[in-house]
Structure formats: C-alpha cells, structure tokens
Amino acid sequence: MSAKAVAQSYWTKELEEELEELGIREKWLFTTNAADRPFSGSEEEAMEFVEKNRSEKLYDHDCYNQCKQKGCGKLYVADGNWKLCYPHCMWKVPVTVPGFGDVNYPTICPSSPEHGHAFCKSHCMMAKAAGYPSELRLFLEAEGCR
Ligand SMILES: [Zn+2]
Ligand SMILES: [Zn+2]
C-alpha cells in the first residue's frame, strides 16, 4: 500500500468521524454537483464545512485547571503560514497581532530575502548602515557560521 493511499484512508476516516460528531454523517451527500443543497458537496467541501464549524467552537472535553491555565478557549494556534522551504529575512523584529495580546510567533521579518542576501531590501540597508555585510555567505561568516 502506498503512502498516498494510507494518507487518503486516514483523512477519509477522520472526515467520517468529524461528520459523525457533528451529527450529519448520514445526512451529508457526497457529490460533485451539490448545487445549493445543504449538507452536500465533495470530500474537500465536507472538510471545509467541518473546519469552519470546528474553528467556531471547542472540542468537548473535561476542562481541568491545567487546561484552563494553558489558555483553553483563549488560545489560538495559527499554523500553515510558512512551510520549511519558505525563505525569510534573518532580521529579528518584534511581532504583534492586534487584538491577540501575547503571541508565540517567530520574531523574524517575514519578507523574502534579496537574492543571495540574508535580509530583505530594507534590512539589507540597515545591516550595511550598522557595518555588517548583507550577503548571505559573508554575513554567516561574520557571525561565526561556516
Ligand atoms: Zn479545556
Ligand atoms: Zn527584513
């Protein structure tokens, strides 16, 4: 069995369980021609439906003190913005998200680096003004990386 087939089976089962928990597993009509019929659509549309519902409420659980202390109901996980291959500027910047208080987010400039450089255009200029090379290899050597 291929990895792709295993992954597909996993997601199909997950989707079935999510639809079951929402009480619509038997109601959802899997079709590529759903028109405007409620509780119908492709597998991908069903996943979008489940995600939209899940993003608006908590999973049922026994909420203990530790759960509350860790931010149950107030903690948001935003994942998938950047994948491992996404190059970003190496300049350290404070990151805030209005309305979210403290965020645990990488404190780096999200702009793309200039080709062959460690930083984005504006941070290249700031590095040079501070007396540091902005070329990736030269910058890493200056910082003791080989
Ligand atoms: Zn909780
Ligand atoms: Zn930058």
Written as H for each helix and E for each strand, in order along the chain, the element string is: HEEHHHH
- Which hetero compounds are present in the coordinates? zinc ion
Helix share of residues? 25-40%
> If strands are numbered along the chain, what order do they take across the biggest sheet?
1-2
Kindly give the count of domains: 2
Estimate what percentage of residues fall within beta strands: under 5%
Query: Cα-atom Rg, whole angstroms?
Result: 23 Å
How far the N terminus sits from the C terminus, by CA atoms, comes to 43 Å
The residue ranges in which pLDDT falls below 50 over 5 or more consecutive positions are: none
How would you describe the shape? elongated
Structural class: mainly alpha
Quick one: biggest sheet? 2 strands, parallel
Mean pLDDT: 88
- Total strand segments: 2
Helix segment count?
5
Tell me about this structure:
- Helix content is 36%, strand content 3%.
- The chain is mainly alpha-helical and 146 residues long.
- It folds into two domains: 3-56, no CATH class; 87-145, no CATH class.
- Helix 1 (3-21) crosses helix 2 (43-54).
- The two termini are 43 Å apart.
- Bound molecules: zinc ion (ZN) (2 copies).
- One zinc ion (ZN) binds at residues 61, 63, 67, 72.
